Structure formats: structure tokens, C-alpha cells
Amino acid sequence: MATLRTQEMELNMGPHHPSTHGVIRFILRTDGEVVSECKPDVGYLHRSIEKIGELCTYNGFMPYTDRVDYVAAMNANFAYALAVEKLAGIECPRRGDLLRIITAELGRISSHLIAVGTMAMDVGAITPFPYALRERERVNDLLEEICGARLTFNYHRIGGVGWDMPEGWDKKVLKFCDNFARITDEFDRLITKNHIFIERLGEVVVIPAEDAIDFGLSGPNLRASGVDFDLRRDEPYSLYKELEFEVPVGMDGPGYAVGDCYNRFVVRVHEMRESLRIVRQCVAKLPETAGENPIPKPKNFKVKENECYVRSEAPRGEMGIYVVSDGSDKAWRYRARTGSFTAMGAVEHLSAGIMLADLVALVASFDVVAPEIDR
Amino acid sequence: MNAEAIHQTLKKRFPDGVGELHTETIDPWIEVQPEHIADVCRFCKEDEALGFDFLSNLTGVDAHNDLLVVYHLYAYGKRHSAVLKVRVPKGKPVTKTVTTVWRTANWFERECYDLLGVRFEGHPDLRRLLLPDDWEGHPLRKEYMFPTEYGGIDNTRDYGF
Known about the structure:
The complex is a heterodimer. By secondary structure, chain A is of the alpha+beta class. Chain A has helices at about 50-55, 60-65, 75-90, 95-120, 130-145, 170-190, 195-200, 210-215, 220-225, 230-235, 260-285, 340-350, 355-365, 370-375; strands spanning about 10-15, 25-30, 35-40, 155, 160, 305-315, 315-325, 330-335. Helix content of chain A is about 45%, strand content about 15%. In chain A, strand 6 and strand 7 form a beta hairpin. Chain A is globular and about 85 Å long. Chain B is an alpha/beta fold. In chain B, about 20% of the residues lie in helices and about 30% in strands. Classes of the chains: A alpha+beta, B alpha/beta. At the A-B interface, helix 1, helix 8, strand 6, strand 7 and strand 8 of A face strand 3 and helix 3 of B.
């Protein structure tokens, strides 16, 4: 019997494809269902945010940081504020720091809800997604109440926050925490401990710790590979030193292994629980700062020639803000190193020899969002 | 290790390739000659006392007549960091790739090439990353002029009001 001749095929996946999490294009070479090469083509969402950073005053740039990662805008605000504060030697009042951590951790929860919801959806489990989004809406309600926006918050300021919390807001946050704690357990029953789900993602695209570091993976993606490192604990900034929380790392188990897609999912589910703990502790500390003004005066300032690189733990990994000042009221250079950028850069190296459906699982497990890659 | 100790270790190993330690900035930085950067980085990663296994950030900065390529390194084991800088003239912005040291440098260098026009010798795939392939110029250079048209479509239409 004559054997069938097979031939490699060049395929375009995206830029508009439901599993690419934004406008991203993959140029694939496939042999049937097996990918032999995958070259991501990014830049469709490039808005030259780094150039804009050189054209705006330090205060005026804050709304643009929302757009660096609009799925977790609070954390992007936070990273920029921390960097400029360090550069200009500006102190943030304690109440401002507490409000920033509460909003940033709520932001992490809402970002991880998107991550785990879409990841389940991308491998075929549609149901968890609306449940995750339902909870995200509650987070958005809380954040809307404190700053007026549901997506691009523009809430943090250099040296504080834009508004103090409204009366009774802290009580609502605690109520959310109580409810959400129950819901994470439900979520576990629904999907995290679902056998079909574990079999689908367990031992898929395993990334050893050494490779993960070499690829520049960071945050949950790095921890899923077994590297026990979290900037909030290991290089603490803001008030994280005073807070107690665990850092979930990847684990071996029945059907799954450290560094696989399943671990990248589970680490995020656990991180949401830890964020709740952080939020609760910060809310408990708020009364100590009653009467303090967390709102800085909105005036322009100049920063003498200097530079600094400040790393912070954003939901998609390390967000490193590098700011160079030149003595004027605008940055000479603003640079955002983001978790999605390095994760997407790793896809090229990891995709050879995997199944096309596993490529979708890999990209979903990295939790990349296009704006954070392209900036 | 602190910045002085890191600098001394590097200076001892590369007396010609490694320049001064600059401490006037918040993060002290070490100047490295472009032709030595790949070797210095490899040493940074492989030397046991340094152990810089993580290239946290690689980017470029316009420095008037020159371009600076900035490397932010971090060591997960040792929990210390370092900043290296390479200075290349704008007229001939050529340095060596570090993709052979850290694979994450691949996209960082492509981005730096795209936005600042630094050419990394030995890079396996030095193409534009974020901008369209037919884009002209490198926007993060200070002398960059914003284009008035793209693909035959005017960007500066005057409506008269």
C-alpha cells in the first residue's frame, strides 16, 4: 500500500481569533495537528505608550498607565507611582498605601478571574467563565465606587491616591471577601478539581524552573514552574512587609506536574485566596489612619537627573518600570517591562512539537493580554 | 553582593571590557564595551558568585549623540541585581547580542532594534517586533519626526477649525 504523502502547512492563526486574548497573530507551520514552528506576530495594539511617557508630565501620564494592562489597570497604576516616587523621593502617606494595596489586590483578583475563566473556556469548559465574570463585576462595582471607573481606573497618584474611600466602602469590601471566599471553593468544585480538566491540562507543556527563568517568565508563570519567588514578599515594596500571605508555587500531583499548564491555572486560583487575606489585613489597618489625607496636591514637579528601575508584582508577572529623568517635569525615558511580553516571547521556543490545541492551552495558561505585550 | 563587589568581580575578569561604576544614580550602573557585552553577560550568568540567571529588562535610551543599551540583571539564588550599560554611537549603533546567554533577550533586542535602531550582531532573527515591517525610522530616538502620512493616507488633515 502506498503511503500518504504529508506536507507541512503554513497557517495563520489570528489576528482575530477567540483564543489569542486580544489581537495577536500566530504564524504556524504545522504537520497535521502538530506544530513544528510558531512565530507570534505582535504589535497590533502598539500605542507607543513609552513614547507618550516622554511627552507627558509625571502626573499627567498616570491615565496612560491604565492602558499598559487594561485588565489589571490598578496594578499598572501602582507600578508607575512606585517608580516615580522612588525617583523623585516622594513619600506616600500610610492611608494612601493601604488604599493602593487594597485596590491593587482587588485588581489582581479581578484579573485572575479573567485568566482562569478564559483559560477554562479556551480548552472547552465554557461554564466557569460566566461565574468568574459575575465575581469580576462585583470587584468592578467596588472599584467604581472608589474611583468612578470600571476598567481604566486612573486611581493611584504619585504620592497617594486620587480619592479617599467613600463612607462604608471598607464594610462592602469585607462583605465581598466573605462571599468570595465561599465562591473560590465553589470554583474548585466546578473546575479546579474536575478530572476532565486536570487530564486536559496536566503535564501539558511542562516548563522546568531553569527554562522558566531563562525565558524571563515571571509572576504566576514562574511560580507554577516551582520557583518560590514573589516580589511582594522577597523584595517588599509599599507596606507588603507588614502583611502575611502565602506564595503558592507549582506542585506535583496525580495527573499533573510542576511547570505544566494545570499548575499555571491552580497557582492563580490560590493567589486569589491570598489576595483576599491581604485585602482583609489592609482593611483592618484602615481605622488607624482615619483622618489622614491620602490625596497628594496635584502640582507639577521637576526631577533632577537620575534613573531607577522598580519592579513590582503585577497579576501577569513582574512589571518593571524604568524611568530616566533629565531635570524637567517630564521623563526622559519611560519603560515598562511586562510579564505578557516575556511570556509571549517564550511561546516561540516552547511551541515546536506540541499539538495545535495545546498551543491554545499554553497561551491561555500564560495569561497574556495583547495591550501589555504591545504597549 | 553589592554594586561595588559586583563591579570589582567584573573588572578583575574583564579589565578592558568593563568600565567605571557609576554611583550617582539611584541604581548604580556599570559601563561595558559593546564588543565585550556578550562575554560579560555570559560570565555574569555562569560565575557562581554572581549567578545572574534572570535578565529582568533590556532596553535602550537615547543619550543625545549616542544610544545606551541598558541591561537589568537579577539573580534568583543570590537575590542581588546589577545594571549594565553599553554605549554605541547613533551613527553606527552596533553591539553584540546576548540571546546566546538568556533566551528572553530575543524579543527584548528585537524591540530595542525596532524602537531605537540598535543592531545586535549575532541575533538569530533581528526584525521589527511592534511596528509594521515597512515603518521608517525608530520612534524612541529624540530626533524622530512624527510621520505626516502612512501608506498614502494623510495624518495631518487640516479642517480649518
